[in-house]
Every structure is written in C-alpha cells, then in structure tokens.
Amino acid sequence: MSTSHAEFGERTTGDEVVSAFAERVKDRIFVVTGPSATGIGATTLTSLAKAHPAALVLAGRNPATFSSVVDEIKRIDPNIKVVTVVLDLSSLAGTRKAAAELLGNADIPHIDVLINNAGIMATPFAKTADGIESQFHACHIGHWLFTNLLLPKLRAAREPVVVNLTSSGHRFGTGDFDDINFEKKPYNPWAAYGNGKCANVLFSVSLTERGIKSVAVQPGWVGTDLGRHLTDDVFNELLTVWVPNTPNIEAIEYKKTLEEGCSTTLVAALDPKVPAAAYLRDCQVGEDVAPQAVDRVNAAKLWEISNALTGETFA
C-alpha cells in the first residue's frame, strides 16, 4: 500500500515532505511534544515552519532545551505564532496543567495536528510519583492523557490527525499489559520499552475507532540522544537477545540524519492518502507491524488500563 508519493523512502527528508504537502501546512496549527534541539521533534518543527503554518506549539519539560528551536522557527518565518508549553509527560498533574494551558489559549482555537514525539528508552527501573513504571508513563500514559484532554480542540479542526511515534521495539511488547510495574516478573528495560512502544500503536487504533485519525510512525534508527541511558550491557542485550529472537524485526542498515528521521512523521501528519490507524516506516505504510500492536481487543483493554492509571473515565 502506497502513500501519495511512492518515491519517498528512508532517505527522504522532512523538507522534501513539507515541500510536497505545503498546502497541508499553510495556516494550520501543529503541536509537537519533545521539541528539544537534539531530537527529531526539532527538525519536524523547522521543516513545518518553511511552509508557513499559522502556529507551532512546542511542548516539552524544559523550555531551555528548545529555546534555540523557537529562535530558528522565528528566523524562518517571523509571522508564525510560536507557543511554548511546559509539559512533563511523567507527571499526571504536569500533563493536566499543560493541557489546561493549551485549552485556555485563545491563540490556539483548534489543533490540526498533534505529534506525540517525546519518549525515553531502556531506562533503569523507576516509578514516577504517580506510581507508574517510568517508560510506560512517559511513552504512553502521558501522551494518552494529554491527547484525550486536548480532544475538544482536535475535534474543532476540520481534519485532525494525531501522530504517535513508536519504534521497531513495539515488537518487544506482548500487548497484554498485565504487569506494567513488573510486580510479577523481574524488570527488564527492553520489555518495559516494548510495552510503551506497543501501546503507542494500539493508541492509534483506539483513537481512530473514536473518530480521530491517528497514525503510528516508526522513524528509523536516528542519531539522537534517546539512547543516553544505555549501558554497554543493556545495548549488547538488545543486539544479542532481543533482536535475534524477535520475529520480523528489521536489521539496522542505515542510520538516518535528523532531517531524514522526521520525514515519516511528516508524511503521517500531512498526506491525506495515509490510512487511519496505519503503521508507517520509511515514509510508506509498513506491513510488518506486530499483530499484538494492532489487535482491537488489546487496544480496548489498554484504554481501560489507561483510564484506571490516570483516574479518568474517557469513553
């Protein structure tokens, strides 16, 4: 199954995607989580800026880490409304505060595209202040809550899209989520990462069922600081245990630049031909998504678990 541009692939850049869909950027409003200057969220934003959106919202834990991104956006186009929001995805209270700030911002009357880009990977075991395993909280629960709270402004847009960034590691997740805090089995950083990344794909399934187009994106192997928590032992375990024993996980053959790493996100956000609830990799619809990550029963169970963990009752 092709997108609108069958020629796009692993080496396509974000600028190329935005150029192809400039009319889908102009005068629209985009929200991006995890916009730090060293990640693909930043290049996603600066690529979008070149096609003159009405507003770009940068939502991250520490504005100092993305102040240079704000400056670059303003240099590209000083007419863009740039909004920064302090968003701590590892805190339920912090996530609610950020969502309330956006809901109350009259300069952001609606949200055309929400890109849930932020995440962490293979961290040592820890629980957040809300009692949730840290990777599952930061990668899934924070975005799940943020997105649901922002639904009024998403539904106010003509064609809202939510893009959830996942990874090949979604195949490490079982899809059952019966032991998020590793109370029944020993903690493993890759199993925890797999839980969060599998949940990202299932979240797109659930959102689409609820009338909001959502797409899960595997950006590829990109040179960011996502792996800053990796020790040699943990990385070797990935290469010698998890990758060889995980069906259909692709070999790492090409390390992408940041500009190439943001391109699949932008295809998901801008190309109207991309199907709802699709899984994209290398700018095309991928057929190699793990079955447990698109199972509607798993998606429904995850939704109820997310409600329980956050104390919400989202339908």
Can you tell me about this structure?
The chain is of the alpha/beta class and 315 residues long. The protein has one domain: 3-Layer(aba) Sandwich (Rossmann fold), CATH 3.40.50. 38% of the residues lie in helices and 12% in strands. It is built from 11 helices and 8 strands. The protein has helices at 14-20, 40-49, 67-76, 92-103, 134-149, 151-155, 189-209, 232-242, 258-261, 263-270, 296-310, and strands at 29-33, 55-60, 81-86, 113-116, 161-165, 213-218, 279-281, 284-285. The protein has an 8-stranded mixed β-sheet with strand order 3-2-1-4-5-6-7-8, sandwiched between helices. Helix 1 (14-20) runs parallel beside helix 10, helix 4 packs parallel to helix 5 and helix 7 crosses helix 11. The chain is globular.
| Poorly predicted residue ranges | none
Task: Give the overall shape, derived from the CA principal axes.
Answer: globular
β-strand amount: 5-15%
Mean pLDDT over all positions: 93
Beta strands, count: 8
Distance between the termini: 32 Å
CATH topology: Rossmann fold
The top-level CATH class is Alpha Beta
Order of helices and strands: HEHEHEHEHHEHEHHHEEH
Helix-and-strand structural type: alpha/beta
- Structurally, the number of domains stands at 1
Give the radius of gyration. 18 Å
Number of helices: 11
Instruction: Report helical residue fraction.
Output: 25-40%
> What kind of sheet is the major sheet?
8 strands, mixed
